[in-house]
Structures are given as structure tokens and as C-alpha cells.
Write a structure and sequence with these properties.
Elements: H1 6-22, E1 27-30, H2 32-38, E2 47-50, H3 54-60, E3 64-68, E4 73-78, E5 81-87, E6 89-91, E7 103-105, H4 108-113, E8 122-125, E9 130-133, H5 137-143, E10 145-146, H6 152-158, H7 161-173, E11 176-177, H8 179-188, H9 197-210, H10 214-223, H11 226-230, H12 232-235, H13 252-261, H14 269-277, H15 282-285, E12 286-290, E13 296-300, H16 303-317, H17 322-333, H18 346-354, H19 358-370, H20 377-388, H21 402-407, H22 414-429, H23 435-448
Parallel strand pairs: 2-5, 10-11
Antiparallel strand pairs: 1-2, 1-8, 3-4, 4-5, 6-7, 8-9, 12-13
Length: about 475
């Protein structure tokens, strides 16, 4: 797959701008790409705003896709890459809390005033360097403030996902929420329940994977009331005490915040969600046990298994792809086994290290330790074990196959599977130096195995009486 560079995207956008301007239309860069350039950040994509109506955009470019032509939104495709081109517009009421009921094409000032936050309401003409700011966006960029354009209640009511977007921008840009914007957000937080789960998941994923301190974003979600609406299972971590000898940092929520703050953006989706949900099983499994010295201790027996079960339900609710759910829940279910790695047999260690999720699991373990007791001895043990295996495959091809076992008289079924696993473990342990030695070991072991007694012969059934 071709890798598209940021420079290619920018050149595409500039080419589209020139074509529109040469045809007599006004056109400029709009929204997030302008914000990012003013902040000295590399834009992830480029959007264009113009007074050219959609039909003129379609006429001017060889390939366009009408992604929202009724709302003046077109995709211009250049060399297989798409750039959004939107006609300046003014929106009417938003009856569904997401899209305008109708739009009227307008000029740049009206278009800016319909947008969500002041920092996203800026326009830039790259040719002249002129910036059009009708909403005070540049001042808010300098003050590092997230503020709605116009009345906060109206802006949020037009699309309730903006409630979550406000927190995401505050987290990813490390800005503060302006007071009236924050107050409206807290008041309207329950309305986020009206937004589709998939859109919520996408915004949460962007926050978790791109924020310099994703834990700060989680704190803000809780403080504004959004967390209880979209992830009540995570909100339940607040105030859940833990044994101070293992968790001097405090409750489970604080522990999760510290782990999220330790992520390095852009973090993998699997790791970010595994961190967020790895301890959701603690509140439902908490129990108090009495220690030999008479003291009491909090325990969370099987919280890893319960957490994996809960995480699967949460992620399915949020419409996460099935393969990602499987990977995330696998990491959560197995995150406690890392404390036993120094006691594991070599074969078990190789299977642990050879798992496709191991890089994520290892980083999850590292973050878990750093956000609690700080002991990285098991992490370092695994790094050393990995280094020992760097000249050989972690999980080599098995020397003994099912055909070998069938040839020795084992019937298909569970017993054959058990013997195949035993042979592979012996290979991984290094107990045999070659396939021939392993076959010799197998022949000897099979001769010594206990034989199942023959099945009893059922007595002949008495003939049934004839009525």
C-alpha cells in the first residue's frame, strides 16, 4: 500500500485551491488544518472551503465523490487521495441533534459562525498568507482555550457529539475549557447518550491514542459527567480502594489515569483500550481477606477474567471491530500472569513471548508497574529472555506432527492433541536436540503411558415381549 506523505496531501490541497481560484471562485483552507499550522503542528489532513457550489466543483475536477452534496460537501480525488471541498454555508435547525435540516449557501463569515469551536473557525489563503478570523479563534489559540462559537447550548444541541469533541480537543491540544462552554457541557452531558455508539468510540479512540496525556483526558471526562454516561464501568473505578503496599498511588481510577498518561502518542488502539479497561473487573470482584497477622487486605480475585468479560461487552456496545475486541480482551485476561514469569518453564515463556499480542502485553505490564509499585524486574526478565532468543525463532515449527502420532497408533481426538502439546513443549524446553531425538523420546513415552481399560461388553438385551 502506498504511503501518503503530509507534503503530498498539502500539494493536493494547494492544487485544488489554485484550480478553484483560477475558475473565478474564492477558496481557502479551513478548520483544523489552519489551527494546526498556526500552532506549528503538521496537519493530518486538509479541508477546503469555497463559494463554488457543488455542481461547479464536480465540473472543475475529473473525479469527485458527492459525500454530502445536499450540504455542499464534495470529495475531490487526486491520485487516489481525497480532499474535502465544502461550499460556504449557513445551517438551519438540527432536528436530529446531528445534521442541519437544511442549508443555505453563503459567505465565509456565516460559514465560520456555524462551526463548533473558535479554534476550528479559521480560514487561510496559502497564496497570500491571509487569515480570516470572524470568531476570535486566534486569540483563543494563544490563550489555549476551547470555546464554542456563539451560545454553547445552541452549538452543543446542533450535534451532541461536540460534547465529547470539546474534551478531546482540550486533551489532545492540552487546552482548558472556557467557563461557559464547560458549564453547558456538564449540563448537557446526558444528551451524549443520543449519539451512536460507533461515533462515540471513534472520538474516545482519538482521545486515548493521540493525547499527550490521555489520563488528563479521562479526568476531564469524569469531571464533566461524560464518563458516567458513556463508560459507567470506568466511572465505577473512582473511589475503589486498593492495597497501599502494591498501589501507593491510590484508587483504581488514579492508577488508570497514571497508566494512560504514560502512553506515548500515537499509541496503538489495542494498547490504549487495554490500559483503559484492564482493571474494570476490580469493583465487582472486591473482597476483604484477613491476613495471618490479623490485618485485613483488599483482594480482587479473578478480576482479570471478569475484566475481560466486561471489556468484551463494553467494546461490543461501542461497535469495536471483532478482531480488536479479541486482542484487547486477551491482553486484559492475561495481564496478571506477568507476575509469575520468573517461575515459568521455558516452553511457557516461549509461548508467552511468541504470542502476536506480546508487544502490547509487555507494554501494558510496564505501564501497570510504573503506575503502581514501580518494580520492573519481571519486565526486565522478559527483555533478557527475548534477547536470548534473538538468533532463533521464538516459536519454531513443531518437529512432531499429528501424522507422526497417528502413525504410532494414537487415535484422532483429545489424547492426540495432548501428546502433540507435550512433544512441542519438550522441543521448546530444549530437552531434545533434534527431531530424531524427540521421536525417540516420544516412542519411549508412548510405551510407558497407561492404557485405557477395554470398554466392557454390554450384555445382550433380552428380547422385548410381544403384546
Amino acid at each position: 500500500m502506498e504511503t501518503v506523505t503530509l507534503d503530498q496531501l498539502r500539494q493536493d490541497a494547494l492544487c485544488i485551491l489554485r484550480t478553484l481560484q483560477q475558475a473565478g471562485f474564492s477558496a481557502c483552507l479551513a478548520g483544523g488544518c489552519v489551527r494546526d499550522q498556526l500552532m506549528g503542528r503538521a496537519p493530518k489532513d486538509y479541508d477546503i472551503a469555497t463559494n463554488a457550489p457543488p455542481e461547479e466543483v464536480a465540473r472543475l475536477f475529473p473525479r469527485t465523490v458527492a459525500t454530502g452534496q445536499a450540504f455542499g460537501v464534495m470529495q475531490v480525488v487526486t491520485a487516489g487521495r481525497a480532499c474535502e471541498v465544502a461550499t460556504f454555508r449557513r445551517d438551519s435547525a438540527h432536528g436530529d441533534g446531528r445534521r442541519p435540516d437544511a442549508v443555505v449557501f453563503s459567505g465565509p463569515e456565516e460559514d465560520a459562525r456555524r462551526r463548533d469551536f473558535t479554534i476550528n473557525g479559521l480560514f487561510l489563503d496559502p497564496a497570500s498568507g491571509a487569515i480570516m478570523d470572524y470568531v476570535g479563534g486566534r486569540a483563543d489559540l494563544e490563550r489555549k482555550i476551547i470555546r464554542t462559537i456563539g451560545a454553547p447550548h445552541q452549538r452543543f444541541s446542533e450535534d451532541y457529539l461536540r460534547l465529547l469533541r470539546a474534551v478531546r480537543f482540550a486533551a489532545t491540544l492540552e487546552f482548558e475549557l472556557e467557563a461557559s462552554t464547560r458549564a453547558a457541557l456538564q449540563e448537557l452531558a446526558p444528551r451524549l447518550a443520543h449519539i451512536s455508539a460507533e461515533r462515540i468510540q471513534q472520538e474516545l479512540t482519538r482521545l486515548l491514542t493521540t493525547a499527550p496525556r490521555a489520563g488528563r483526558g479521562l479526568r476531564l471526562l469524569h469531571a464533566t459527567g461524560l464518563l458516567a454516561v458513556i463508560l459507567p464501568e470506568v466511572a465505577a473505578l473512582v473511589g475503589q480502594a486498593q492495597p497501599p503496599q502494591f498501589h501507593p498511588e491510590g484508587d483504581v481510577f488514579e492508577h488508570t489515569v497514571l497508566m494512560l498518561d504514560g502512553l506515548t502518542p500515537p499509541a496503538s488502539r489495542t494498547l490504549a483500550w487495554a490500559v483503559l479497561l484492564h482493571d474494570v473487573g476490580k469493583p465487582p470482584t472486591v473482597a476483604v481477606s484477613r491476613e495471618p497477622d490479623g490485618s485485613e487486605r483488599l483482594r480482587f480475585n479473578c478480576h482479570d477474567e471478569e475484566g475481560a468479560r466486561m471489556a468484551a461487552l463494553i467494546l461490543r456496545r461501542l461497535k469495536m471491530p471483532a478482531d480488536e475486541i479479541a486482542a484487547i480482551t486477551y491482553c486484559i485476561k492475561n495481564h496478571m500472569r506477568f507476575k509469575e514469569v520468573a517461575k515459568m518453564r521455558r516452553a511457557t515463556l516461549r509461548q508467552l513471548v511468541g504470542a502476536p499480542t506480546f508487544p502490547v502485553e509487555l507494554e501494558l505490564h510496564r505501564l501497570d508497574c510504573l503506575a503502581s509499585h514501580g518494580d520492573l524486574s519481571n519486565y526486565e526478565f522478559l527483555l533478557k529472555f527475548q534477547d536470548e532468543l534473538h538468533n532463533e525463532p521464538v516459536l519454531p515449527q513443531p518437529w512432531i506432527t499429528g501424522h507422526d502420532l497417528l502413525a504410532r497408533g494414537l487415535p484422532p481426538g483429545p489424547e492426540l492433541g495432548r501428546w502433540r502439546r507435550r512433544a512441542y513443549e519438550a522441543q521448546l524446553e530444549g530437552r531434545c536436540a533434534s527431531r530424531e531425538q524427540l521421536l525417540a523420546w516420544l516412542d519411549e513415552a508412548l510405551q510407558e503411558r497407561p492404557r485405557d481399560p477395554p470398554a466392557p461388553v454390554a450384555p445382550p438385551r433380552a428380547p422385548s415381549s410381544v403384546a
